[in-house]
Design brief:
Elements: H1 5-20, H2 35-54, H3 74-90, E1 99-100, E2 107-108, H4 110-132, H5 140-158, H6 174-181
Helix pairs in contact: 1-3, 1-4, 2-3, 2-4, 4-5, 5-6
Length: 190
């Protein structure tokens, strides 16, 4: 079993952000989506990564068209998704040169693939924390580790609208630098 600290840290950040949300209908930095829709999207993405890695089933809903209606608690949706992703990645050796992931070009080295999965969870953790008016749950070291991942995978995804145009870089705060690269305004407020 492979240990992927970058994924564990991102999953912990997502859990912390979910715990901070009190209004699931609140707006988020993620376009016109509510906090509930961002949670659904984040959970669906983690299930999608697991499905690509294991050949198992994908999400039972469209993560790109989330309903915004939560059945049960937020944890009822989130925890099984995080468990699926963590267990799928635990079976992937760091030495694998090609793993199948739902991010173009779909085949990438294991370290980059798990980084893409972690980046997805971290970005949505940040979105949810911002929505709740809570501090970022992302540690500086995690943001520092995720920026090179983003720089390798994001540019092709901008053409599909998955990420906005990068905002001008600033020095200092590494979490803000990562979010600005991803086209998110670190000063966004609900």
């Amino acid at each position: 079993m492979t240990n992927w600290p970058i994924l564990a840290q991102s999953h912990d950040a997502l859990r912390a952000a979910v715990a901070a949300v009190t209004d699931w209908d609140a707006p988020t930095p993620c376009s016109d989506w509510t906090a509930a829709q961002v949670l659904q999207h984040a959970a669906g993405d983690q299930i999608g990564f697991a499905a690509f890695l294991t050949g198992g089933p994908g999400p039972s809903f469209d993560p790109f068209s989330p309903s915004g209606t939560l059945d049960g608690t937020p944890g009822d949706l989130l925890e099984p998704a995080l468990k699926l992703a963590a267990e799928a990645w635990a079976g992937v050796a760091t030495s694998y040169e090609k793993v199948r992931v739902p991010v173009p070009p779909n085949d990438m080295p294991a370290g980059l693939g798990v980084g893409a999965c972690a980046l997805d969870a971290a970005v949505h953790a940040w979105d949810l924390a911002k929505s709740a008016g809570a501090p970022t749950p992302l540690p500086t070291t995690l943001a520092r580790d995720l920026l090179p991942v983003a720089q390798q995978i994001v540019e092709p995804l901008r053409a599909f609208g998955a990420y906005a145009t990068a905002l001008p870089a600033t020095s200092g705060d590494e979490v803000a630098s990562l979010m600005r690269y991803l086209g998110r305004d670190p000063h966004w407020t609900p």
